Amino acid sequence: MTTNTQATSMPAVVHALTRAATDALLIELRHPDSGGRLPEARPGDHIDVRFGRHLRQYSLYSSATDGRYLICVKRERGGRGGSAALHDELRVTDIVQVSSPHNRFPPVRGTRTLLLGAGIGITPLRAMAEALWHERDRFDLWFYAPDRDSAPLLEYIATRPYADRVHLRLSTQGQSARTALPDELEHPAPDAHVYVCGPAGFMEHVRARARKAGWADEQLHQETFTLDAEASAALSEGDEFAVRVASSGETYRVPSGSSVADVLPANGVDVDLSCEQGICGACLVPVLTGIPDHRDEVLSEAERTANDRMTICCSRARTAELTLDL
Amino acid sequence: MPAELTVPRECTFDPDDWRIIARYWYPIALATEVGAAPLGVKLLDQPLVVYRTDDSRTVIANDICPHRGTPLSLGRGDARGITCAYHGFRFGAGGRCVDVPAHPQAKIPSRLHLRTYPAVERYGLIWTCLAADPDTEPDIPTHPHWDDAGFQRINCPWIDIAAFAGRQIEGFLDVAHFGFVHLKSFGNPDNPVVPDYAAAPTPDGFEVEYWSTVGNYPIGVVDRSKPGFQWLRHFRLHVPFTATLVVHFPDEGKLSIMNAASPVSARMTRMFAPICRNFDTDQPEQAVHDFNRIVFEEDRAIVEVQKPENLPLDPRLEVNVPADRSSIAYRRALRGLGLGSFFTA
Which residue of A has its CA nearest to B233? Predict the structure, then answer.
């Protein structure tokens, strides 16, 4: 069940798009108002980005004390189409919806920090490296990629004042995570921490090696990207609207953060639910009046345009009121 | 449409559902199983007899002698056809009755000719269709890479599963069970998370490109992939009960598996699995048979105990999570055929 969520959704304008690697795009987001600032973020934070019907989470590339967000998006092969849509459709001046920053990857201050990133997994680690350098903490960043062209923002990182602490490892030159893990990983230090981000197999491999070398679980930190409950909650964010149940004539308010499927059962109206994430279609209900804001992936474009049915677990309203055939 | 499309006696499907799924092609035997002797099989509750005549043509007919209702599969066969076990009536090419031993000189009534079905040999299997349209080409799903040069073709023995074909196919398409069910074959219990994937519609079903770090090397065999290797599993579903899977191995290796679930009845499935691959092609076929057997036996243990025994097509009847996108797409595709929402079994 969705409860009142702390996450807030706000518009952000696409200020710049930069090619970060052969298949990665750097997206700079700013407050839509000139001079406006997006909420401050800490290193390791990520945000939810809603673009069209896609909702995805991305780590911030910078710690964003300057009121803007930089995210780096890799075109995912075989994903659900969110990254492809950003790559193919996003234009400078487009407006996207972003959440306030979340953190599941908080940096722990230690005497020494080992950062190991692979591919697009460099994103949060780069933000941490920047912050650690400012704090004058000891750290090293190992950056694994197949080759220079697919290492996101390599040129930029090379210009940073801590470039000498960034160690590039290219598998096309025989230096992969299997063959070239840092010696430091073999020597656990009591007050040191290891941060890993990258493909699941890379993270598993690094963690396994680190555990074997004697690092404690509390010293190992990793970032994974999945749509978690927090982001699912964001799926039901939006303007409040009213829903009228045709059979009884009763009207109920659906505030931001709640769905029709939350509100109706709470008022004794039975609804069918299954996935509660807009993927299965169990909760499709006929719409008699009003225009839905379709947020599911069940309906085809034609079915969306017809506006005569909606998934009540996640879809909202474009009109102030909807009448449902319930 | 043939004139005499009658629902079999003791049909375990809803008759309306049966008439829909009878329009599709299914394998009923390995090509190597069919010879001069009559072979009895069953498809969609219809008992069939299969034999080959001396012109190497395969005959598929109702497994019942039109004379006094004895199963023809009880009889014998030779180069001239098969004979009924009861009165020795002989049936030859095209299922035509060619001899009534009691009256060697008499005219043979036309009603003694067998009700036959078209037979097509493809991927080492004999395919048929109970309600084939004679004016259209057999619509047998494509097996990726089967005809490509450099691929070794292997036909695994079929496996009988006491479950509905839809459940078996759904198990084949499922990507969230590897680390729980396939512990003796290739699954990794420490890697249960299912990365996002999407199901894209195709003219006769859908396809899924599923990327994950779950490898496909048999347990006990050296994993030749690099850490972090992204395994692509490309699934294609052809309604109603055939699916293919191409597993992309390191170094351009491809393993292409067809899972053709032949619906014997609503509660029994004969699973055929023609496989081809472009690596280890010098290795004996038996190792592939053995590995495949372990994988499908692991699946069978689950599929045979699932309740309900049929496949609930209405999304409200079971609970869906994001890993089920294939299952959701599959059930939607079956609904699109007009099958009943509960697909009564």
Answer: A78
Asked whether residue A193 falls in the same domain as residue A275, the answer is: no
* Three-state SS letters, B248-282: ECHHHCEEEEEEEEEEEECCEEEEEEEEEECCCCC
| Helix, strand, coil percentages for chain B (3-state, nearest 5) | 20, 30, 50
Residue whose pair of structure tokens reads 């609904």 in the numeric block: B335
CA A283 to chain CA centroid, Å, is 26
Cβ–Cβ under 8 Å, residues A326 and A274: no
- For chain A, the domain total comes to 3
pLDDT 10s digit of each residue in chain A, 326 long? 333 333 467 889 999 999 999 889 999 999 999 888 998 888 878 888 887 767 778 888 876 678 899 999 988 776 667 788 889 889 999 999 888 887 766 667 777 899 999 998 898 898 889 888 888 889 999 999 989 998 998 988 989 999 999 999 998 888 888 888 999 999 998 889 999 998 877 888 898 899 999 999 888 888 765 444 445 555 677 789 999 999 999 999 999 888 999 999 999 999 988 888 888 889 999 999 999 998 888 888 788 889 999 999 989 998 999 999 99
Domain that holds residue A276: 231-324
For residue A256, the domain's CATH number is 3.10.20.30
Residue B197 near chain A (CB below 8 Å): yes
Q: Which residues of B touch A177 (CB under 8 A)?
A: 227-228
CB–CB contact B228 A198 (8 Å): yes
B310 contacts: CB under 8 Å, gap ≥ 6: B164, B166, B167, B266, B342, B343, B344, B345
Contact B213 A277 (CB under 8 A): no
Could you give the ipTM of this predicted complex? 0.72
User: Is the CA virtual torsion B43, B45, B46, B49 positive or negative?
Assistant: positive
Q: Which of A193, A222, A251 is the last residue of a domain?
A: A222
Within a domain: A23: yes
**What is the Cβ-side half-sphere exposure of residue B38, based on CA atoms within 13 angstroms?**
29
Tell whether A59 and A78 lie within a shared domain: yes
What are the structural domains, with CATH classification, of chain B?
15-128 (2.102.10.10), 152-336 (3.90.380.10)
Establish if A65 belongs to a structural domain: yes
Closest partner CB to B226 (pick from A76, A178, A274): A178
- Same domain, yes or no: A122 and A191: yes
* Disruptive mutation site among A169, A207, A279 for chain B (greatest number of B CBs within 10 Å): A279
A169 & A261 share domain: no
The last residue of a domain, from among A201, A222, A243: A222
Looking at the domain assignment, is residue A103 inside a domain? no
